[in-house]
Amino acid sequence: MRQYFLGMAAEYNFRRILKHTFARGREIDCSRLRQFLASKYGGETMLCKNGRSALALALKAYFEPGDAVIINGFTCYAVYEAVKAAKLIPIFADISKDDLNFEMKKFDTLLPKKPKGIIVQNSLGNPVDIVAIEKLTKKYDLMLIEDMAHCVGVKYSDGRECGTVGIAAAFSFGKDKVIDTISGGAVTFRVPVKHRIEAPNVTPKKSDHLRARFYPLFGGICRGLTQIHLGGLLMRFLVAIHWVEKSADNRLDLKRRISKFEAKLALEQFKALGRADESPIRRFYLVNNREEVLKQLAYAGYHFDGLWYKQPVSPERYYKKIHFPEETCPNSVYVAKHIINFPNYYSKSDLESAMRIIKPFLVEEDQWVGKTS
Ligand SMILES: *Cc1c(COP(=O)(O)O)cnc(C)c1O
């Protein structure tokens, strides 16, 4: 039986595992990546430990402590952490079930909280209605930050590329992102900053470096062992002894820099994106009885251990800390209970066979949400 995975470095085939494990980066790779991003996205660029640190630097550069910012009501803990690290107040905005981005008709309900800015994340690579958002940012004097974790290479409906609209763009090169070097990030300041930001310059911790270095190899071994039902066990063991770190636990650190080999690999991936004609959009479906769907998918060889979202702010173990406003974000709560999403490396035929399993469970018939591609 063929195995299809979400998580466990599933995007890494044998060749890519070797390449990652033995990649050697130099200082020049960091400056090349910095220059590439600076010219592609139009602004001074700093390389960071991960995406949340990049986002926190973007926020610190333009906002005052205590400012409120609007963030997507369906997001990753990393975003919340970045907002907190910059000493800002998050305003969770409910999402639309069609594209997992802001529900525009509820926008007015956020205004009493006096937002000073808005972070767009283009969830799973579905672009926001940027024209409408820009109108609002002008009308209410909001600073627009683009979180690029899901949407590198994606274009907005008016043809502009994600990352070229806001005052800053924050990139994550973490696991399962469009640019995936296991960890790493970058921030591009597209307009002059208000508060001077120190570029991260402390060498990565040895333990962090080694975890990033060997994760694809460990992931590959675990995937292999799934055939004899030991993969999950080994992965849990590796997490327990801290040889593998879950993405959400990757600490925010404004001072540490990226590993040099990650900078080298990230630049290669950015350049390859420009050439490939594939869309980075992650397909999602809303299903009833998700547990049953997952069971049937697993039986067919689709392993979904790392289901991206089970709560409006993932992962589950951080959700309680957040005091998420479930009453004002009903769609976010609903979607988190019903979503299944497929990574973009699945082939058409993989998707079609999964679709046969999913179809009877779709909350709306004929649903092919995220079909933008
Ligand atoms: C993953 C992610 C980030 C940043 O993640 P890091 O793990 O810190 O690199 C930021 N925003 C969103 C929406 C994400 O999914």
List the helices and strands and how they pair.
Layout: E1 4-5, H1 14-22, H2 27-41, E2 44-48, H3 51-62, E3 68-72, E4 75-76, H4 77-85, E5 89-93, E6 115-120, H5 130-140, E7 143-147, E8 168-172, E9 185-189, H6 206-226, H7 231-240, H8 260-275, E10 283-286, H9 290-299, E11 302-303, E12 313-314, H10 316-322, H11 330-338, E13 339-342, H12 348-358
Parallel strand pairs: 1-11, 3-5, 3-6, 4-12, 6-7, 7-8
Antiparallel strand pairs: 2-9, 8-9, 10-13
Bound molecules: pyridoxal-5'-phosphate.
Name its key features.
373 residues; single chain; binds pyridoxal-5'-phosphate; alpha/beta; 7-stranded mixed β-sheet; two-stranded parallel sheet; globular; Aspartate Aminotransferase, domain 2
At a glance:
The chain is of the alpha/beta class and 373 residues long.
